[in-house]
């Protein structure tokens, strides 16, 4: 187990589409442990994706249970291998920041209800529903697996409210 | 980028404003690019029929404000833009990371004098620091409506509920709607 240093943009690994995990071997289990340690070491961090520690595999960990937005509605620590979003609905805008893009935040629109499928470290395939802040965090981390940063999804400038001339 | 780590740079605040047309940003940034200036930070927007640019620019020392002024004077001689340039001192360059909660305050109601003043005075007196503010006059000529939206950091010890409570009296006095909500960024 080890806390890994967080890769920051413009490291090209953050813009690469990660490969699926083909078999959950010792390296993958080690990666999951490292991601959990790294998440717990980051102040206020609620999730880390594998490319953020320099590994281009479809693995991420999430835990919003200690965050004020997530403590009422969460599934605790989620260890997600090859996660897929099966259904998404609802929408909410939240101002997001990312350990891989220091000193910048932006408003991002995300779905508020998700149905997901992923493998757990013991190989069990799990399907479940997430909502609220947990759903936002899952989408942010899963975006990393597709080489997307929140900067790719900025919903509006702060002055967006006033850009109202066209309602098409 | 922490500009404080670049002691070899001279910093300037540049304000450009003029009747809107296409190409104002391109024209302005062309002047800066050709001079070898960096745009460190900027905010540009439409205000009424004007386009306004506020920029913090830097250039390797030695570099004088006069050089910038001369280039803009020449470029803007016939294009309707006005430029104002100020040299920045070392202690004006660093962005001071706010420590308190970030909140968004929206205020709207029938237009009347003093909305901006009364709201911002109340906030300033309680140590609330405004980070960003926009106002707009909307509605019709006969029924003008004023909208004010601002983002501010609350001092430690002041909650969103406290801030909301602070503005309750003004809500009645000015007959405006006021809402305060937390928008502190989430670290993901």
Description:
The complex is a heterodimer of chains A (168) and B (188). Helix content of chain A is 18%, strand content 30%. With 168 residues, chain A is an alpha+beta fold. Chain A has a single domain, classed as Alpha-Beta Complex (Peptide Deformylase), CATH 3.90.45.10. Chain A has a five-stranded antiparallel sheet with strand order 1-2-3-6-7. In chain A, a hairpin with a 5-residue loop joins strand 6 and strand 7. Chain A starts with 25 loop residues before the first helix and ends in a 23-residue tail after the last helix. With 188 residues, chain B is of the alpha+beta class. Chain B has a four-stranded antiparallel sheet, covered by helices on one side. A four-stranded antiparallel sheet of chain B has the order 6-7-5-8, covered by helices on one side. In chain B, helix 1 runs antiparallel to helix 2 and helix 3 packs antiparallel against helix 4. Chain B is globular. Classes of the chains: A alpha+beta (168), B alpha+beta (188). At the A-B interface, strand 4 and helix 2 of A face strand 6, strand 7 and strand 9 of B.
Second rung of CATH, namely the architecture of chain A:
Alpha-Beta Complex
Say how many strands of chain A there are: 7
CATH H level, superfamily name of chain A: Peptide deformylase
| Integer average pLDDT of chain B | 92
**Hey, roughly how much beta strand do the residues of chain A contain?**
25-35%
CATH level-1 class of the largest domain in chain B: Alpha Beta
Number of helices of chain A: 2
Per CATH, the class of chain A reads Alpha Beta
Mean pLDDT of chain A: 92
The main β sheet of chain B shows up as: 4 strands, antiparallel
Q: What count of domains describes the coordinates of chain B? A: 2
Oligomer: heterodimer
Strand order of the largest sheet of chain B: 2-3-1-4
């Amino acid at each position: 187990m080890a806390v890994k240093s967080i890769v920051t943009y413009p490291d090209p690994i953050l813009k690469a589409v990660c490969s699926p995990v083909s078999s959950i071997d010792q390296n993958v289990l080690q990666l999951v442990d490292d991601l959990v340690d790294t998440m717990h070491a980051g102040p206020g961090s609620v999730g880390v994706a594998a490319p953020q520690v320099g590994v281009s595999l479809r693995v991420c960990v999430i835990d919003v249970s200690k965050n004020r937005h997530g403590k009422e509605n969460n599934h605790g620590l989620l260890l997600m291998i090859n996660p897929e979003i099966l259904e998404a609905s609802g929408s909410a805008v939240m101002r997001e920041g990312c350990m891989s893009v220091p000193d910048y935040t932006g408003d991002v629109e995300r779905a508020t209800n998700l149905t997901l499928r992923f493998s757990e470290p013991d190989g069990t395939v799990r399907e479940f529903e997430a909502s609220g802040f947990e759903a936002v965090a899952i989408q942010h981390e899963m975006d990393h697996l597709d080489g997307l940063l929140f900067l790719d999804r900025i919903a509006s400038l702060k002055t967006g409210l006033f850009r109202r001339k066209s309602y098409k | 980028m922490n500009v404080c780590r670049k002691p070899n740079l001279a910093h300037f605040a540049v304000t450009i404003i003029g009747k809107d047309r296409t190409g104002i940003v391109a024209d302005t940034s062309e002047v800066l690019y050709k001079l070898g200036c960096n745009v460190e930070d900027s905010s540009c927007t439409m205000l009424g029929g004007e386009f306004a640019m506020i920029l913090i620019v830097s250039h390797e020392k030695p570099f004088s404000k006069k050089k910038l002024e001369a280039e803009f004077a020449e470029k803007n001689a016939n294009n309707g833009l006005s430029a104002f340039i100020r040299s920045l001192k070392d202690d004006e360059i660093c962005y001071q990371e706010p420590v308190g909660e970030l909140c968004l305050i929206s205020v709207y109601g029938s237009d009347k004098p003093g909305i901006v003043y009364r709201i911002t005075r109340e906030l300033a007196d309680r140590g609330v620091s405004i980070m960003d503010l926009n106002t707009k006059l909307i509605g019709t000529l006969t029924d003008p409506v004023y909208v004010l939206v601002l983002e501010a950091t609350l001092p430690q010890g002041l909650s969103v509920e406290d801030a909301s409570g602070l503005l309750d009296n003004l809500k009645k006095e000015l007959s405006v709607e006021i809402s305060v909500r937390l928008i502190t960024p989430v670290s993901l």
